[in-house]
Amino acid sequence: DAVDFVLSDTIKGSNNDAPQLSAAEVKKQTIKECQESLPIYHYKESLLDAIKEHQVLIIEGETGSGKTTQIPQYLYHAGYCDDDMKIGCTQPRRVAAMSVAARVAEELGVKLGNEVGYSIRFEDCTSERTKIRYMTDGMLLRDFLGEPNLASYSVMIIDEAHERTLHTDVLFGLVKDIARFRPELKLLISSATLDAGKFSEFFDDAPIFRIPGRRFPVEIYYTKAPEADYLQAAVVSVLQIHLTQPGGDILVFLSGQEEIETAQEILQDKVRRLGSKIKELVILPIYANLPSEMQAKIFEPTPPGGRKVILGTNIAETSLTIDGIVYVIDPGYCKQKSYNPRTSMEALTVVPISKASADQRAGRAGRVSAGKAFRLYTSWSYQNELEQSPIPEIQRTNLGNVVLMLKSLGINDLLNFDFMDPPPAETLIVSLEQLYALGALNHKGDLTLTGRKMAEFPLDPMMAKTLIASEKYGVVEEVMTIAAMLGVNSAVFYRPKDQAVHADNARTNFFSPGGDHLTLLKVYENWAATDYSTQWCFENFIQHRSMKRARAIKDQLQGLLERTEIDLLSNPMEHVGIRKAITSGYFYHTARLTANGLYKTVKHQQSVHIHPNSSLFEEQPKWVIYHELVQTTKEYMRQTIEIESKWLVEVAPHYYKEKDIEEKKMPKQRGKAKAELG
Ligand code: ADP
Ligand code: MG
Questions:
Q1: CA distance 260 to 309
Q2: Which of 235, 187, 178, 225 shows the shortest CA–CA distance to 207?
Q3: Which residue's CA is minimally distant from atom 10 of ligand 1?
């Protein structure tokens, strides 16, 4: 079952005379040689001149040219950190912020967290001494609450601007405004390729500084016919390359952790079976939730004579540069969030990528020498089925968080906020309505005291409201635990395929009456009772790393209680109170069991299903609240609890009236169904 490819065209290289290095040669370079070999190095002086001359500068350069790691260092050495000022650099992804900060600390020869540090949600690795601060874009947005004019920064770099994440898009509007009344603040907007013109236009025609890339030609191969199973095709292609192509590492783009783990398993199995007949193949995953020590492995040198294959998400498209990649396998899909304001349903689905992404992915193969990109779709499909560029996140996501944040910054007229691409008005209006129903805004649209408190927490507005409501029921500690556990939710239970039965047993042992949130609470409480034992996690198929992270999140939330004047009340037995607190925050997420045994959301009558992993899957209670919806083969509610319908009217009288929760329809429908049958 080989995959048939045809060579279609070649992306031209931009610098064909540059010496082509093997991965091993690249790795042998000293830090200084490495820095000097980056395309940006030759433009250091002219870049610094341009920054001196202009307040706002758009910087465009291919991935790997040195923008993220080098520019902050150039500025640091040029004196931009004198007088106790800092250089900030935002990253759309947590992993990138951490890995890049580590790299720059190494290049500068300092300890990470001292002169160079990073800040991501729930983790601050900076200190008083920090001069170069990498952070997620969401983190900078949050910082605005404490420092609305970014007074401690001399330079702010909005990096990877082309990714157009929600937070980056909102930052554009905010920093543009600040630049007007802080003329000494330098603003750099840095982006991989494309769109520089658009950024320039938005920032009042700011000049564009282009760093010519250094790229070797990349041959593009397409499959002859569409592939039914791209995961299988990707695995087969890896082996084909490994067995037939000369040295050079392979990068495979997959949509997420689950796919990566599956591919890794299949591949490992096949390699094991081939045994010593083939050269060593080192299989390495990279995705956002991967623990950082595992992430660091992708940068380790390839063993001599062997080959690395990196199974990565979009994160490897532009945010991380891995040297030595010569072959790229691109199935043509990524995971994308979508949002329907009419039903207020959010879904994470696997969708085809855009042409811009496909080209970006292919480009990853031509960094150190000429490369090859294998696309697991047809040339026709590329030409006719892929969109030109991705839709910015701001146009396909729930804006509750951002609206709350902007309101707390005193920005009231959101419909006229300076967005590069405005979100759909309907989405903004729905967000305002939801914040109103949560009690965060009053009828004039102004922030209430509750809203102000909610904004203090780095949580979704619904979770923030749950936490605030938990005080009333005396269960603050328990709700904080649940919030922390939901924060690492997808990675709590460990389920290796060869021990699936044991793992499932271990998991169901934690099931608690009332639903999944209480199950998570039980896991945490039992763990805490062992004094946070690693061994206990191991025995119970719980991921220790996730638990440690949950503990850190909980600590951070606890640190915010004083500021928001919430008492740390605790009552582990008060399960009704816990469920009522959750209802106070998540009342939009209510579904009821209908006559035909299906669940429908209460307000929008959408069909949804309890996830088979849920403790409520068998029980099928009449009313449930879910934490999130995921769309796979069906619309699944993930993490559900059972509630009583009257709580809805009790905790959210703005939103639910008696008529919404009346039970009258049930017998009627049943009668009708019978009549139809008979
Ligand atoms: P750009 O931002 O223009 O895409 P970067 O500054 O991220 O470029 O990367 C420049 C070079 O720095 C890469 O080619 C790679 O060699 C090196 N590099 C970046 N991050 C790391 C890391 N975490 N570990 C080792 N090397 C890295
Ligand atoms: Mg970069």
A1: 12
A2: 187
A3: 66
- For 188, the 3-state DSSP assignment is strand
Choose among 510, 522, 532: nearest CA to 578: 522
Distance CA 481, CA 578 (A): 11
Phi-psi region of 60 (alpha: psi -120 to 50; beta: other; left: phi over 0): beta
Distance 232 CA to ligand 1 centre (A): 31
DSSP 3-state helix, strand, coil percentages of the chain (rounded to 5)? 45, 20, 35
Residues 6+ apart with CB under 8 A from 437: 587, 588, 652, 654, 655
Q: How many helices (H) and strands (E) does the chain have?
A: 26, 22
| pLDDT at site 668 | 43
Cα 31 to Cα 40, 109, 239, 583, distances in angstroms: 15, 10, 33, 54
**What is the pLDDT, as a whole number, of residue 23?**
57
| Per-chain mean pLDDT for the chain | 90
Q: What is the ipTM of this complex?
A: 0.98
Residues 647 and 624: their CA atoms lie apart, in Å, by 11
CA separation for the pair 301, 106 (Å, rounded) = 17
As for ligand 1, residues whose beta carbon falls within 6 Å of it are: 38, 61, 63-70, 99-100, 102-103, 299, 321, 323
Give the predicted TM-score (pTM) of the model.
0.84
CA atoms of 584 and 436, how far apart (whole Å): 13
Residue with tokens 């609890």: 641
Bridge-based pairing of strands 116-120 and 132-136 is parallel
Å from CA of 518 to ligand 2 middle: 41
Q: DSSP class of residue 492?
A: S
578, 519 Cβ separation under 8 angstroms: no
